[in-house]
Amino acid sequence: MSPNAAVVEHIPSHHTIRARIGLKAKPPIDDEHELAQHQEYLWSRIRLVLREPFAEFWGTFIMVMFGNGSVAQVLLSTGITSAPGGNAFGQYQSISWGWGIGVMLGVYVAGDSGAYLNPAITFASCLYRGLPWRRFPIYFLAQLLGGFCGAGVVYANYISAINNYEGNGIRTVPPAKKATAGIFCTYPASFLPRANMFFSEFVASTLLMFVIFAMKDDSNLGAGKLFPLGLFFLIFGLGACFGFETGYALNLARDFGPRLMSYCVGYGHEVWSAGGYYFWIPMVVPFLGCAFGGLLYDVFIYTGESPVNTPWIGTKRVVQGDVMRRPKSAADNKV
């Protein structure tokens, strides 16, 4: 047997599978855990292969459960005079708290994968921070499924309260007077023209990515291990300051996944047609806003490795058709 064959035989099979689906060959765990005897069991091998997608799924799942759960509690308890304070279990700021806490806890759950929890943030990280593009599809799918399933659990938990609020079996979409579809995904204010819908999501998504890059920039002040807490304040602030008009979706996985779930449980075609077919805006605009926010940060503040910090401020790579390629060392160091 040749020496090369001997080397191949010693490459763990899960390393090969992980590389084929776009992940780093070695999973992000301690060496002693990877070599432990229990890793020979079937589920342990599956977990080694899909650890990061599982993390993105559950991180997004947790985020949506807290976020949608906060909206459900505030809306469905409206008018309950037995609540502390005499009117409902929460106010609008309770929703900002819920989403902020959900994002923070989701990041703790998904830390080993990078805790992107948002396809638009994943996209911007591929574009500017060397996250390999081959990871984008599997992360995207995991995040989308996490949002769908998280919203499904919230619906199952609150189904009796929804029946009590709307009427047994009745499911309506804004601007209906007692609509509950807004528990799960965003709908625009009825007075908003299409341009304002677009601009509201674009501004909030731009702020989201700009500040995330700032908090992750160790050459700046950076957030370090306080990054999850910093994200809590960022999401809380976006909800408190920019949540009124469109609901600050910011995230395809947190909006389209739960929207699809609400369609499946009986909210009907209106989940797509409401607001003049608004549904595509929180699917598309966060990608544009996050890309723009990342561009602004890298052009004016960031001094590390970025496409912006290349000849012609990155445009040379675009002209040469090289925009999708990133140096391997950047991916290894950043991810």
Mind explaining what this structure looks like?
It is a single chain. Helix 9 (194-215) packs antiparallel against helix 10 (227-242). The protein has 15 helices and no strands. It has helices at residues 3-9, 13-20, 31-34, 42-49, 51-76, 92-109, 119-128, 136-166, 194-215, 227-242, 252-267, 270-277, 281-300, 315-319, 328-334. The chain is mainly alpha-helical and 335 residues long. The longest helix is centred in the middle third of the chain and has 31 residues, at 136-166.
Low-confidence stretches: 327-335
Number of helices: 15
CA gyration radius, whole angstroms: 22 Å
- What is the helix fraction of residues, given as a range? 55-70%
Tell me the quaternary state: single chain
Q: Structural class of the secondary structure composition? A: mainly alpha
Produce a short descriptive summary.
With 335 residues, the chain is mostly helical. It has 15 helices and no strands.
List the helices and strands and how they pair.
Blueprint lengths: L2 H7 L3 H8 L10 H4 L7 H8 L1 H26 L15 H18 L9 H10 L7 H31 L27 H22 L11 H16 L9 H16 L2 H8 L3 H20 L14 H5 L8 H7 L1
Helix pairs in contact: 2-4, 5-6, 5-8, 6-10, 7-8, 7-13, 8-11, 9-10, 9-13, 11-13
